[in-house]
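Collaborator request log, item 7. Partner lab (contact: R.S.) asked for a structural prediction of Peptide chain release factor subunit 1 to inform their binding assays.
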Amino acid sequence: MEFTAQEKYEFKRLLEDLRSKSGRGTELISLYIPPDKQISDVTAQLRDEHGQASNIKSKLTRTNVQSALESVMARLRLIPRPPPNGVVIFVGAVDVGSNKTDMYSKVLEPPEPIVTYRYHCDSSFLLTPLEDMLADKKTFGLIVLDRREATIGTLKGKQVEAIKHLTSSVPGKQRKGGQSSRRFQQLRLIAIHDFYKRIGDSATEAFLPIDRDDLEGILIGGPSPTKEEFVNGSFLHHELQQKILEALDVTYTDESGLYELVEAAQDRLLDLELTQEKLVMRRFMKELVSDKGLASYGEKEVRQNLTMGAVDTLLLSEDLRKTRATIRCTNASCDYAKDETRSPNSPPPENCPKCGSQLEITGEVDIIADLSRMADESGSEVKIISTDFEEGAQLYRAFGGIAAILRFRTSSV
Ligand code: ZN
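Returned to partner:
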């Protein structure tokens, strides 16, 4: 499944939040239930765990584990069967500082189906299955070759996998006695060509079944001129031939050559990942310096442009850590209310300017969710920009993390 920019951001933030939680002992429970798992089986196991937990020596840990298990079982009673992607439950007494713990619980349906049932009790939550769902699913085909040996593999996210190893019967450059030099050269060329063809066929067999959209490109490594001969000779299926990104020098042509190839292609790979974000930031910068440019930045200005329906593309920094809060007067007979952008270190609301009573926060949403909602309402595109590259970092530092490319010029740029 493909995430929208905002879903991906929200999922990242959720994982960040879960990662920050820790228990005092091994008392945080993570439960991954696949869609085809019987809830009654899960409950039976938890009841068993509850019984075993009575052996835990530390009274505090024992109580915490048992009440977490009770809480999970109570949750499960509300779920007659797992939803289509299964369900994940996190429960436990998390450390909240100053020697206190708080019972935390979170139930969620993951963006992709859960494959393996997991019950995990530790001092932190088990997040790897969810982190894997967030990982880049893009695949690259890898081929390393010389005239004697070739290895075919893939790169998925950061994972290199070798698929096939081939060796050739191409004779060495030295001919044996009795053969004519010309005849020998001819045979050698035929053998080389045959070997390239075998590599091409094996690579086609390996790469063609990969979903067309998931196969981002093919990297080829080897010494010169072997790799160029292979690329120029069109030995791959024509659809795959078009996906060749680059041919790079590598020394090894066994499995270690695949790693060498990925290493050599690092810059190119990073570029590809960031291209979308880079392109949109470049567009923004261009508008910014042009005379009648369509760039807008700053929260107030961008908000105003969103309200006017003037925003074509909304650019939000992934590192924004702000919320939009609804603040009301606690005095029931006073109607004072306002919206306010807050950061983690904002002071508590002051007193009501109308009646002097205490103000309170009655609602609070992540600012990225708040602005994305406004963008959705006016059909604007939302791009959430990481700070992993120069222009992305600049969006955060120089433009407060909030900017827009406009449809038309307004007075609020
Ligand atoms: Zn008031």
